[in-house]
Amino acid sequence: MSAFFTAFSLSLLATGAMVWFARRIGFVHKPKGERWSSRPVAMGGGIAIVAAWIAGVVLWMEGGDYGAVAAVLVMFGLGFVDDVFTVSPKGKLAVEFLVAGGLIALGYRFPFDSDLVSFAVTFFW
Length: 125
Prior knowledge:
By secondary structure, this protein is mostly helical. The chain folds into two domains: 1-62; 64-125, no CATH class. The protein contains five helices and two strands, in the order H-E-E-H-H-H-H.
């Protein structure tokens, strides 16, 4: 629970700071007609969230849950690359499927009596 509260608290503080910084340097997504927002939206919030999560993991994790850490870092990298360069929806989905498959291959599963249900819920979560 301490890892959660550490990550949550740091995330709240750091995300606000990152939004301020992103707006200040112009790291924003300009609104388009087909988008849901009519004003610029700050990008890079994932940096603050991942940094806070890593702090929680480093301070409180016992043992080496490196598969989950690697998955989070890959997904963070995908989000950052998408913010900077724009990744196609198919490209994002492909990376997400690879990460989900990798976690399943490493033994990460939601516990259900049925292996099929366990696999499906884990993969699509």
